[in-house]
Design a protein that fits this description.
The chain has 460 residues and is an alpha+beta fold. Helices cover 18% and strands 41% of the residues. The chain folds into 2 domains: 214 residues, PmbA/TldD superfamily (PmbA/TldD fold, 2-Layer Sandwich); 234 residues, no CATH class.
């Protein structure tokens, strides 16, 4: 199967799908192929791995619960018919959606497949060497490059005939600084649905700024503790949107009575100037795609609008049970993993403030930047998010640089205390998210700057 053209795979899948009548049962089949390259360099090691076209097939039918069969790409497709039985009168157990067709391939400016591995390794080495030689106080540098090429072909008995080929690339850089007995760092991430041209946007000026940010941390002081007016940068707002809020909106958690947000649908959960979205259809973001792994078109999910909780995040089954419209959030890590309700690009919408205006109105507060740790609490609604650095705000100006600063307390209390949102262009950072500690999928999160009053902060 992995050597067949996509037209041949479509033909094989349609033959199997026609075996199952939609009025009797729902059926779909997915081809999943992934190629990856990972290069990582530190002072003690230089590692790389190349995996070309690991592929497989998963088919399933809904018979009150999912009956699912996964095989390697070169496996016998007839096993699917054997292991997934034909039944009668179960087609209405899950909602039906309109079929549609798509064949979309994102073409990067520089196709990583055409770039020799030696050239990729050399590019990582160049960044490493430049950072290491930039200042005597940079004692350790870590550079990681990740590229993925993912192809998914999907057919179901509702008339879906879908194919997408998506490149995903990510560069992660940490220059670690030391002066006297103080050791600290900042970090830089660049990611998206792009190719090897990702390095075009990582020039010496960008790297110089990364080094400057790490060196600044050597002078950072411990943040204050207590309730303060805070400003969060897009990385920190993304942590709130994804970790503290988004996981509680996943509809499988709603059905299990494991979300504090279940009782809040169509109620106020945030300030009226606050809107939050999950949008897999954004262009060129790490968490974007054209359709999810259940054949649902990638949409635009308005989670919170003007402070009111409008929607949960659904896959096919949860949308069916809750009589909702899914926006493309049924996702698999691969054919060997189950479909789960998953976020994609989750973010706060922009407002109408200038950032400097937001700062100027604060007599005493803290600005938290570069979020780097967040813990989900979908059952209790608690918030535990930490920034890598911060700034003390005194009399309307940023003054001292602060070390890692933690936010804690009740998520909804913080959201309702938001009193300003900046008009900055949407900024999203990419990474991966697991369902628990497994089933990893690419996501992004972010937004613009937000200000909130009376939020509990402490050293992180």
């Amino acid at each position: 199967m992995s050597n067949k053209s996509h037209d041949e795979i479509f033909s094989d899948f349609e033959e199997i799908t026609n075996h199952y009548n939609r009025s009797d049962q729902y059926f779909d089949i997915l081809y999943d192929s992934i190629s990856s390259t990972i290069i990582a360099k530190t002072p003690s090691a230089e590692n790389f791995s190349v995996n070309t076209k690991k592929s497989g097939i998963v088919a399933r039918s809904f018979l009150g619960s999912w009956k699912e069969v996964a095989i390697e790409a070169n496996g016998d497709l007839n096993n699917i018919k054997t292991k997934i039985p034909k039944v009668s009168n179960k087609g209405n157990l899950i909602a039906e959606f309109d079929g549609w067709s798509l064949n979309k391939e994102i073409k990067p400016k520089i196709d990583p497949i055409k770039v020799p591995i030696d050239e990729k390794i050399e590019k990582v080495r160049e960044i490493y060497t430049y950072l290491k030689n930039s200042d005597d106080r940079i004692i350790n540098v870590q550079v990681k490059y990740l590229e993925l090429l993912i192809e998914r072909i999907f057919v179901n008995n509702e008339g879906c005939k879908l194919r997408q080929v998506i490149p995903r690339t990510r560069v992660f850089v940490i220059p670690i600084a030391k002066e006297g007995s103080v050791v600290d760092y900042d970090y830089f991430i660049k990611s998206g649905e792009i190719g090897f041209e990702i390095f075009d946007s990582i020039d010496n000026a960008v790297l110089d700024q990364v080094v400057k940010n790490s060196l600044e941390m050597l002078k950072a002081e411990l943040p204050p503790a207590g309730r303060k007016t805070i400003i969060l940068d897009p990385k920190m707002t993304g942590l709130i949107a994804h970790e503290s809020f988004g996981h509680g909106l996943e509809a499988d958690q709603i059905l299990r009575d494991r979300s504090y947000l279940k009782q809040h649908l169509n109620k106020q959960v945030a300030s009226e100037i606050c809107s939050i979205y999950d949008t897999p259809s954004l262009e060129k973001k790490l968490g974007s795609y054209f359709f999810d792994d259940e054949g649902i078109i990638a949409g635009h999910n308005i989670l919170v609008e003007n402070g009111i909780l409008k929607n949960f995040i659904y896959d096919r089954r949860t949308a069916s049970e809750l009589d909702a419209t899914p926006q493309g959030n049924g996702r698999r890590e691969s054919f060997a993993h189950p479909v789960n309700v998953r976020m994609s690009n989750t973010y706060f919408g922009s407002g109408d403030y200038e950032l400097e205006e937001m700062i100027s109105e604060i007599k005493e507060g803290v600005m938290l930047v570069h979020g780097y740790f967040g813990m989900e609490d979908p059952l209790g609604g608690g918030m535990q998010c930490t920034s890598k650095k911060g700034y003390l705000i005194e009399n309307g100006e940023r003054t001292k640089i602060l070390k890692a600063t933690a936010l804690s307390g009740d998520v909804l209390e913080m959201l309702k205390n938001i009193d300003a949102v900046s008009k900055d262009t949407l900024k999203l950072d990419g990474g991966t998210c697991g369902k628990g500690s497994e089933d990893m999928v690419p996501v992004t999160s972010g937004g613009s700057y937000i200000r909130a009053k009376n939020v509990l902060v402490s050293p992180g």
